[in-house]
Amino acid sequence: MWQKLLGNQYGFFDLFNRHGAATREAAKALLVICDVFPEIAGQVDRIEELEHECDSITHMTVDLLHRSFITPLDRDEILKLISKMDDVMDSIDRAAKTMLFFELESLPNKLKEQIRVLNRAQEQVITAVKMIQGFKYGDQLREMIKEIHSLENEGDGLHHAAIIELFRQNANNPLLVIKLKEIYETVEEAIDECEDIADIIENILLEHF
Questions:
Q1: Which of 36, 110, 183, 187 qualifies as a cystine partner to 162, CB 3.0-4.6 A?
Q2: With contact defined as beta carbons under 8 Å apart, do 201 and 128 qualify?
Q3: What pLDDT does residue 4 have?
């Protein structure tokens, strides 16, 4: 009986880590898009596959939550964490598809810089999520949370500079402004969502460490 009640509790961390690994691969694929643009269809397809994989993992997590009597974190913490992780994946997928559908001639350097910041933030997030299990690494997690907040601030600065540059350089091409602005904002949203995950982890720290 107790095996049935307790056996699944670490399954949540397995699912978090699987989701994180898939999202990490997707963020790296977004970087590859910057390098191979405009020949990006294969990378966009791969990101879409990863997005579907993450959706399945999210559904598995919610199903496990319904079936588990005892959980390693509070139920709302588990749901918030996996949902926000999935939001990051969705934003990456949306950014990649938008780059493809808008048929741009090139990607601005500011956008490439923004995507690099997203990758750095995502790497910190995935490592932090792994370190929750066992409740041993409170000090390290606090430092990582600070770094994620710092990266979000860096992303904000890049976003603002990119939008200013976009309007200045393309005043006579409003359609291009609209297209690029949407992509900038989608990548910025993904970075913001990484910070949201850091906030969730910080709450877990306060509650369990």
A1: 110
A2: yes
A3: 39
* Length in residues, the chain: 209
Averaged pLDDT for residues 69-94: 96
pLDDT grade, residue 134 (50/70/90)?
A: confident
Q: Is the dihedral of CA 174, 184, 53, 196 positive or negative?
A: negative
| Arithmetic mean of pLDDT, 7-35 | 89
Q: CA-based Rg of the chain, rounded to a whole angstrom?
A: 18
Percent of residues, the chain, with pLDDT higher than 70: 95
* H or E element at residue 119: helix 109-132
Sign of CA dihedral 152, 156, 162, 167: positive
What is the reported pLDDT for 208?
83
Structural tokens at position 150? 């710092």
Query: How far are the Cα atoms of 151, 167, 209 from residue 116, in angstroms, in the given order?
Result: 10, 22, 31
- If you search the block for the tokens 């990006």, which residue do you land on? 40
Burial 167-200 (b: 16+ CB within 10 A, else e): eeebeeeeeebebbeebbebbbbbbbbbbbbbeb
For 174, what's the count of Cα atoms within 13 Å in the CB-facing half-sphere?
0
Type of residue found at 155: G
Q: Torsion angle, CA of 196/109/36/32, rounded to 10 degrees?
A: -30
Structural domains of the chain ordered from first start: 2-208 (1.20.58.220)
